[in-house]
Design a protein that fits this description.
Layout lengths: L1 H8 L5 H15 L23 E6 L4 E5 L5 E2 L4 H13 L1 H7 L13 H5 L10 H9 L6 H16 L7 H10 L1 H13 L6 H12 L2 E2 L1 H12 L14 H14 L5 H7 L4 E3 L4 E6 L3 E6 L10 H13 L6
Antiparallel strand pairs: 1-2, 1-7, 3-4, 5-6, 6-7
Helix pairs in contact: 2-14, 3-4, 3-7, 3-12, 6-9, 6-10, 7-10, 7-11, 9-10
The structure holds 6-diazenyl-5-OXO-L-norleucine.
The site of 6-diazenyl-5-OXO-L-norleucine (DON) has 13 residues, from loops.
Length: 319
């Protein structure tokens, strides 16, 4: 009954009960041994596939966490959500809709075909093309200023200064010819503001920012809270922007698996190839998790299982 009450009121059951629910989420997740740690970015291949961390931050700032919730990993594609929110705040809802787009691609995150099929339009900020287009809209007079805007903005979402993983950054910078190709195509079609190589460099840096499962939950809870970080009390983005960011997560946050995710979990989600996964319950809070083995679309296998259990156990499904 506590749980049904949570669905209705947004208040979680007592902390001890939530701890039990988190334990059961981990137990469900560890029934799964399939999936592979990402290796197309060489530095990510070193991750220990058995590490698991999970954290919930509620809209009132209460935190529940378990396992290696403080294990640092690179944020990767989960950065796309927050850079999109920060850019929307600057360029506005209408311009973001027009120049970046919000429709699902139904294709892998690094698809070039999605671009070509749509006259070069990036389509959605959760896939690489749209995220690179978004990063190209970051304000600043130099790459250094644009990077500072992103690093300080994502730090404000997390409520603490986030640092970059230099090894991951270097490793990806040496091997991201595909993203460079996507950026050049965007440029050729007129959807990139600024220089393509410089934009990809800033994008690669944003993907290399180090977070843990706890940070992800606070960042997500800021969106659940209409743009106010529930731990620091600071407003980071406006309410409309927070809503837009959650909506685009729902459209393509898990790439070509986004429909299955929405049917199974019923909440906006966003994955990253290092193994992070963010699930947001609008108006209630957010779950951050880390488990590096990925499915074929690049989404954490154990993270998805844990999110599905929590969504059911806490009555979070929006539908
Ligand atoms: O651009 C890339 O390929 C990586 N920096 C991020 C991709 C990613 O995280 C896809 N997600 N699951």
């Amino acid at each position: 009954s506590d749980i049904r009450q949570y669905a209705a009121t947004g208040r979680l059951p007592a902390a001890s009960e939530v701890d039990g629910i988190l334990e059961r989420a981990r137990e469900r997740a560890f029934r799964h041994h399939e999936g592979k740690v990402a290796d197309y970015i060489p530095a990510l291949a070193n991750a220990d596939p058995e590490v698991f961390g999970i954290a919930i931050t509620e809209r009132n700032g209460r935190v529940h966490q378990l396992g290696s919730y403080d294990h640092a990993f690179s944020i990767q594609s989960i950065s796309k959500v927050f850079v999109y929110a920060l850019v929307c705040e600057v360029i506005g809802h209408e311009a973001a809709l027009k120049t970046i787009g919000v429709n699902a691609t139904g294709l892998p995150f690094n698809s070039v075909m999605a671009l070509e099929l749509n006259g070069g339009h990036p389509l959605n900020p959760m896939v690489n093309a749209g995220a690179i287009a978004t990063t190209s809209c970051v304000p600043g007079n130099s790459a250094a200023e644009r990077w500072e805007f992103i690093q300080s903005g994502l730090s404000a979402f997390a409520g603490r200064p986030l640092a970059m993983d230099e090894d991951v950054y270097r490793s990806e910078a040496l091997t991201n010819q595909r993203n460079q190709g996507i950026a050049r195509l965007l440029n050729a079609y007129g959807y990139l503001k600024g220089d393509s190589d410089e934009t990809v460099d800033v994008y690669t840096r944003q993907c290399s920012l180090l977070v843990d499962a706890h940070d992800l939950s606070v960042m997500g809870a800021t969106l659940a809270d209409g743009g106010v970080n529930p731990v620091t009390g600071k407003r980071i983005v406006g309410e409309q922007v927070a809503r837009d960011a959650l909506a685009v997560m729902a459209t393509a946050g898990l790439y070509e698996r986004s429909g299955e995710w929405l049917v199974q979990i019923g909440l906006p989600g966003k994955s990253g190839v290092a193994g992070g996964l963010l699930t947001v319950a609008p108006g209630k809070g957010a779950v951050g998790s880390y488990a590096p083995r990925l499915d074929e679309a690049g989404n954490s296998v154990r993270g998805q299982v844990a999110a599905a259990y929590l969504s059911r156990a806490l009555g979070l499904n929006l539908f």
